[in-house]
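HUMAN: Mind making up another protein with tokenized structure?

ASSISTANT:
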Amino acid sequence: MPDKVSGRVVLVHDWLTGMRGGEKVLESLCRLYPDADLLTLVHVPGSVTPVIEHRKVRSSVINRLPAPARWYRHYLPLFPFAIEQFDLDDATLVVSTSHCAAKAVIRTGRAVHVCYSHSPMRYAWDQFPSYFGPDRLGPTGSAAARHVVSWLARWDRDTAPRVNRFIANSAHVARRIQQYYNRRAAVLHPPVDTGFFTPDHGAPGDYFLVVSALVPYKRIDTAIRAAAILGARLKIVGTGPDADRLRAIPATGIEFLGHVEDDELRALYRSARGLVLPGEEDFGIAPVEAQACGRPVVALACGGACETVEHGVSGWLVEPGGVDAAGDAPRFAEAMGQVEHLPLSTAELHGRACAFSAERFDAGMTHLVAQALEHPHAW
């Protein structure tokens, strides 16, 4: 537990609509700062764990627009206005967890703002084609979106000085922060509950597993096509706006499970032949959870997976090379067919995952926040 901060502590999170990797970081922060208020753009009651729900949660004006739980991503152009309306006049410490707008909250001069960054705003920088390309919106819609997103990119860059200290969830994201914000960032990997995600030492089942939000840049279609080439079963855990498109891909043995509770997720990890991570992740918590359960990983050799998966030891890293999902699928299929030949036992895989434990995260976060409070100048 960190030393008690003198004054009001405020946590800021982009949105509370489900438990993903970012929300698990927030859950740890709620335990570290049990008296902190929580500000968020959108709050869907019951969508996150009691540890988070029991905060004093204040949502933005976005939450009062029609169907915010379903349509909040469509309100993206309003996020800058909404995040800047929060009143932080009496805050001493602001800790934001941000992949979109939370880092741009406006603090007073006496407050210290530490941002745990999952990524600079993906939509505004290198992920525009995945979300707003002509194949998504049509030529006219894509051209119109580009004007809005270009403005968001400038806003994202120009609001970076509102943060005293950046903490990146991976070295990959630290490089992105340097590239887009011209700021340094400490690296602290997110926490994984390695006391819960454990092996059961049973034999693996006959399926591969994907655990991911169903959004374009995750490239779940690569995993579906790879499983079809291999003739393997594939179970997909997660929800998102890309679900209908993915379900329409012609392939057999594909099972969409939607949202599952943690107990079921652990059971799925334990019985899988391996986890498949076909897209570039900023960090990617699922590969660590899978290894904690004693299962290997097949991942794209980009981004955070390169920091959590050792090629040829705890999994296979597949070099990108195809121009689309179909182009990379054969390489993924080949790697998936080799997972049984990796050298580590389930216990050894779990031991590697323990390097990402919640205890390590809590100690690191406490240390970095204390540094920022002692030396609040921008870093």
Observations:
- The chain has two domains: 8-191+357-374, 207-355.
- The chain has 15 helices and 13 strands.
- The domain at 8-191+357-374 is CATH 3.40.50.2000 (Rossmann fold).
